[in-house]
Amino acid sequence: MRNTVKITVAVAAASAVALGASACSAPSDATASTDKSDKNAPLVVAASPTPHATILDFVKDKLAAKEGLKLVVKPFNDYKIPNKVTDDGQVDANFFQHKPFLDTFNKENGTHIVPVQNVLIEPLGLYSKKIHKLSDLKSGSTVSVPNDPSNEGRALKLLADNGVITLKPGVGADAKLTDVKDDKGIKITELEAAQTAPRIDDVDAAVINGNFAIGAHLKPSKDALALEKAKDNPYANFLAVKKGNENDPRIKKLAKLLNSPEVKKFIEDKYKDGSVIPAFGPAKA
């Protein structure tokens, strides 16, 4: 049984929907269109607050009108609810995740979400408020990692790549805690990804996803004790929809805008610290 905060689906859904409703100033028609052929209906997109909703807000404010696209952005500070509300039609699309996470989510939850367009990469990092270098992690130190399978694997690989732990031979980014060959006396604690940054003071160090690091005002290039390499990184975050909606003309417009020169410049200007890197191109199904 995982050592993490447990929240029932019903409570999580209610909380996330409430957050989504309160975190954006959506008009009264901010619900997913039931008629996908209506090219004039608002496109409702669920997204993590940073950087995904921030980028979508830029598209909404600066680019969407020129393409005749009405865009409504609904932020969710959660990694589960956006796929659920996309699958059941409460929103039209989402933007927050990478392929390994989506594959696992679809398999475990019976959802049918598919990727459409890659947009960005957020390198995973190891952060601390108590130590200043990796060598300060010794036997008895505590390190938290995200508890969802895909991000936990990334986190364990990051720790192994930097000599904090040793994984069994042949194990990579699909690693689980049982794949740790030598923890060197370091206690690894699993937390919901959204809790790794708020609870950083509870451990000696925490592996934190890029969007949550940004939300906690952490600067990867300056604050990370170790940082995932961006080159050849397979964890691009993409625009995603329920299977069958890939050809919605509004989705095609948004996909084009999210890979535009204007968005590339916006990302590079706003995230000069390397926390978010453009990664444009079609996403693999």
Automatic annotation (TrEMBL):
Subcellular locations according to the entry: Membrane
Keywords attached to this entry: Lipoprotein, Membrane, Palmitate, Signal
Pfam family, one: Lipoprotein_9
Record's signal peptide: 1-23
PROSITE patterns associated with the record: PROKAR_LIPOPROTEIN (PS51257)
Keyword Cell cycle: no
Domain of life: Bacteria
Bilayer disposition of the protein: Lipid-anchor
Principal place of residence: membrane
Family: Belongs to the nlpA lipoprotein family.
Record-given protein name: Lipoprotein
Organism for this UniProt entry: Streptomyces endophytica
